[in-house]
Amino acid sequence: MLSRPLFRFVRDGQRIAFMRGRHMGLIVSAVLSAASLLLFFQPGLKLGLDFRGGIVVEAQTSAPANINQLRSALDQAGIHPDAVQAFGSDRDVRISVSAPEGADREARTQQIVDRVKNTLAKAAPGTQIQRADAVGASVSHELFRNGLLALGLSLGMILVYIWVRFEREFAISAVLTLVLDLTKTIGFLAITRFEFDLVMVAALLTILGYSTNDKVVVYDRIRENLRKYRTMPLRDVLDLSINETLNRTLGTSMTVFLAALPLALFGGSTLTGFATVMLFGIVVGTSSSIFIAAPLLLLLGKKRLRPSGE
Amino acid sequence: MMYYSRLRLLGVAGVCLLGVLLCLPNFLKAPSSSLPWRQIHLGLDLKGGSYLLLQLDLKSLEHDRLLSLQDQARQTLLDHGLGYRDFVRDDATQRLSFTLRSDAERDAVLSTLRAVPTAVPNEFQVTATGERIDLVLQHDAMLSRARDAVAQSIEIVRRRIDATGAIDPSIAREGDDRIVVELPGVSDPERIKTLLGTTARLTFRLLAPNPTAASPGSTMLEDISTHTQLAVQDHVDVDGTDLTNAGAVIDQQSGGWAVTFQLNSTGASAFGNVTRTNVGRRFAIVLDNKVIEAPNIINPITAGSGQITGGFDARSASDLALLLRAGALPAPLAVIEQRSIGPSLGAASIHAGVISLAAGFILVVAFMVLFYARFGLYADIALLANLVLMVGILSLFQATLTLPGMAGMLLTLGMAVDANILINERIREEVQRGRGVLQALQAGFDRATGTIIDSNATAFLAHVMLFVFGTGPVKNFALTITIGIATTLFTTLVLSRLLIVRWYAVTRPSKLPV
Predict the structure, then answer these.
(1) Do A21 and A250 form a contact (C-beta atoms < 8 A)?
(2) Do B371 and A263 touch (CB under 8 A)?
(3) Which pLDDT score is estimated for A308?
(4) B 23-82 near A (Cβ less than 8 A)
(5) First and final CA of chain A: distance in angstroms?
(6) Where are the alpha helices (DSSP H) in chain A?
(7) What is this model's ipTM?
(8) CB of A159 within 8 A of CB of A216?
(9) CA B434, CA B442: separation in Å to the nearest integer?
(10) Which of residues 118-177 of A touch B (CB under 8 A)?
(11) Do residues A4 and A263 lie in contact, with contact meaning Cβ atoms separated by under 8 Å?
(12) How far is C-alpha B352 from the geometric centre of its chain's CA atoms?
């Protein structure tokens, strides 16, 4: 049974004319990315605790939680939470309080988390605190800045790496494609209302690394074919290269998808959002390797990569 | 290269075996204490516990130094019979300035002040402009003071936490002015936060002759037992650094809780001197700029020991004694970030991580066998070796594993087979071009290698950035992926290739299973 593969995504020698749909692909991608940008401004991302600062306490009550009673107990204690909500089972309660403003806010942030815990212990005896996080305003600003810095520097380093290993056109098309991928993922975050926090930045960077990997493999083949078929028009070289690498592109996407899938299903509250965004990013990254990265190269490199014309 | 020497075979087998050996300590008890038994540490999110980020208040450090310098300068001038007027302190520019009594004293004042001994060289600069004399604290000297202060604070934080009985705390500097405290198993760090948030600077200072109104050289401080304001002299007669011991006791007279203290010889003699020459005056015991009590000096106290009674209960008396024994922080510490995880949530996270890892592994393994038959099986063997090596390396460095770290492992496994896919697809293409079995294998390996290195390099770059700029669990995610990329290169470029080559050498197939 190990003598030959049981299935393939596309049969050998398949030649799909991807370049024929290049305008369509670019337009659809541009529209989706533009829509994502709009979503980024309205309604915007739901910032997680890391980036917004404040207090989140997750508790498990001994009997089904009475949300209203807990809320009024907290109000009476002068805490005024933004949200008291059930999650998971009916005994799990999450309380979030925004970071206090004004002088001494760091110290008061830390006091609130202890007051929330004490109030819960009084209002619902037997409650177990599962998680108690308090992030001061200075830390959250710093984490946000570092997250963006990591994203920006990664993009920059990828640009330089591909520039050095390939040529300018390759580097610019790759980074443009990555930016399109990233904006769509951010739009996805805005729609799904997953909290944008450091773990999410990790997801974005992983998608970035994965998607780059995908593009590098296709570009590598394009470079090879450009040398091999000296007279073939650039457009045909691109089509040929995408087709030749199609089984690999889909195969690798599949394995990464399969690896991330259990995380989305069983990963718990920390990882579900992370893994779902990863899954979305894998799909976007794979399709952009096929429909966006190569057409952009055709657009940018028509003159330089194959001067004899298309 | 289609031939592996016996030596290389042994080498590859040796690396894999070493990986297995390095993994073992995570699952077995150490057979003897002399063996190096290195394990992966579970992160706080997996075993429960608290993470606290503390920030040292450097502004207050500068303020304190300016205040003590002012006191020092005044005292020195008086001792040398030199005069001053209008002595002011400006915290914003870290500057002290005063007006000369007469122009004739200028040179004497300048040389006297320049000769004031300091712990850090060139700590301040003295300049004269007309009748005004300026003393300015120097930036470099303050930086070196700040560095010392953080190091000293770490030591004191450690002593305080050890005194609470917390197990395996980790205390480390972060950046210029921060300290990270990790407390495994402490899911309610309220008491520790309170202890760390107290500077515990104890001083003994005389009240000003008129204790109800502020005067030069004294500051109004709150008396916490009577809630009144008292004018306390800025000059510190006895400092808490001279304390050798402190303990909580029940006061024989009142029956309430009190804190006793014992001073070293320097402290004891200073205490004796002040109490001898100031009988009848009030002597304030000041803790963190609050007056705990201000009793009248009835008799000189020369034994170097005393008792503080200030409305304590059992808890606050023993906490204060603990703080005094551990020593005062050089500047206030503020908790600016807290993350606590309860033990049951940690256990649930381990469960979630292990289930996901197992399910993901099985899915990828199954896919590879279906997609590449025998070569898929070899890729799977390499994948298992990859997992073993990753766990082995993490154990070797006794690294911490968090839930995002486990996610990083799983994603590494998903990405690792990419190299096998690249090789297999290449071999398949070469077969279709009509090459023979040997040439197809050879060309497949050679051509895929460059691509594999390029694609892994870019992923590597992205995660190094994440490691540099991320914190906590996210850093851990980046770490496992970065280690994973290294092990992937070994298992795919060396191990799975070796398996294919051995299979070829043993069976001499006429057809490839691609």
Answers:
(1) no
(2) no
(3) 57
(4) 45, 53, 55
(5) 46
(6) 22-41, 49-52, 67-76, 105-123, 137-165, 168-192, 198-228, 234-244, 246-266, 268-288, 294-305
(7) 0.89
(8) no
(9) 14
(10) 128-136, 138-139, 143, 146-147, 149-150, 153-154, 157-158, 161-162, 165
(11) no
(12) 29
pLDDT value of position B2: 61
Query: What are the residues facing B307 on neighbouring strands?
Result: B260
B334 to A248: CB separation less than 8 angstroms, yes or no: no
CA–CA dist B65, B68 (Å, integer): 5
pLDDT at A310: 44
| Tens digits of residue pLDDT in A165-197 | 888 899 999 999 999 999 999 999 999 999 998
Q: Give the rounded percent of residues in chain B with a pLDDT score beyond 90.
A: 35
Q: What is the DSSP string of B339-392?
A: EEE-HHHHHHHHHHHHHHHHHHHHHHHHHHHHHHHHHHHHHHHHHHHHHHHHHH
In B350-369, the residues whose Cβ lies within 8 Å of chain A are 352-353, 355-360, 363-364, 367-369
Residues B381 and B388: their CA atoms lie apart, in Å, by 11
The DSSP line for B284-304 is: EEEETTEEEE--B--S---SS
Q: Please count the other Cβ atoms lying within 10 Å of the Cβ belonging to residue B499.
A: 19
Cβ(A173)–Cβ(A296) below 8 Å: yes
pLDDT tens profile B275-292:
999 988 999 999 988 998
Burial of B405 (0-12, 13-18, 19+ CB in 10 A): buried
Contact list, A165 vs chain B (CB under 8 Å): 454
Contacts of A258 in chain B (CB under 8 A): 360, 363-364, 367, 414
Tokens of A45: 């991302």
Show Cβ contacts of residue A51 under 8 Å, excluding neighbours closer than 6 positions.
Answer: A140, A143, A144, A147, A196, A197, A198
> Helices B403-432 & A268-288, crossing angle to 10 degrees?
30
Residue B58 has a pLDDT of 86
For residue B353, which residues of chain A lie inside 8 Å, CB to CB?
A: 267
CA distance between the termini of chain B: 20
Q: Are B324 and B275 in contact (CB under 8 A)?
A: no
CB B458 within 8 A of CB A209: yes
Q: Answer whether the bond into residue A100 is a cis peptide, omega within 30°.
A: no
pLDDT per residue, tens digit, chain A (310 aa), is 577 788 888 887 788 889 898 899 999 999 999 999 999 998 899 998 989 999 999 999 888 888 999 999 999 988 889 989 888 788 889 999 988 887 788 888 888 988 998 899 888 888 888 999 999 888 899 888 988 888 888 888 888 888 888 888 999 999 999 999 999 999 999 999 999 988 898 889 888 888 888 898 999 999 999 999 988 999 999 999 999 999 999 999 999 999 999 999 988 887 899 999 999 999 999 999 999 999 999 988 877 777 654 4
Q: How does pLDDT run across B228-252, given as a tens digit for each residue?
A: 899 999 888 898 888 889 999 888 8
The amino acid present at A25, given as its one-letter code, is G
Which residues, numbered 100 to 129 in chain A, qualify as contacts with chain B under a Cβ-Cβ cut-off of 8 Å?
106-107, 109-110, 113-114, 117, 128-129
The answer to whether the Cβ–Cβ distance between A146 and B193 falls below 8 Å is: no
Residues of chain B scoring pLDDT < 70:
1-2
Is the Cβ–Cβ distance between B269 and B224 less than 8 Å?
no
pTM, entire model:
0.83
Are the CB atoms for A69 and A86 separated by under 8 Å? Answer: no
Gap between the Cα atoms of B275 and B281, Å rounded: 9
CB contact (8 A) between residue B190 and residue A117: yes
> How high is the pLDDT of residue B205?
92
The string of DSSP codes covering B410-452 is HHHHHHHHHHHHHHHHHHHHHHHTT--HHHHHHHHHHHHHHHH
Does the beta-carbon distance from A161 to B481 stay under 8 Å? no
Q: Which two tokens stand for residue A140?
A: 């959250």
